[in-house]
Amino acid sequence: MATYTADQAQFGIQPKTNRVGLTAVTSFWSVVGSISATTTVLMVKVPAGATPVLIQVANTNNGDSAILVGDGNNTSRYRAGATLSSGQGIVLCNLPAIAYTYSVEDTIDILISTASATTLGGGLFLTVIFTMDIRDPSLM
What we know:
It contains no helices and nine strands. By secondary structure, it is mainly beta. The chain has a single domain, classed as Sandwich (Jelly Rolls), CATH 2.60.120. The termini are far apart.
């Protein structure tokens, strides 16, 4: 089980955001070699007080992969069992009926649950649009 960190989830990176309005962050992870099952990629860091309103995943690699999209507390919070086909466009994630607001900083992750033997090269992309809770999360 390998864990990788994409460009927008690296240590010291924090999405630039205002306390009001929407913030969009797109992250990219380049697939080196092949993707194997149980690979986790930390894609986008989300700050405390963030509430995702749209999450989408895309890929440019060859082969098929079944994925889960979630975070450090729930690996399938936003999508379970989606299939990324060779060079597929976009997979939209399901947001909970009751909006989920992060009380502490976390990352939105992609977990590869299965991968074909031909899943080579290319990359994974994840875009998240979130709002910020105007309340100070440290007071909650």
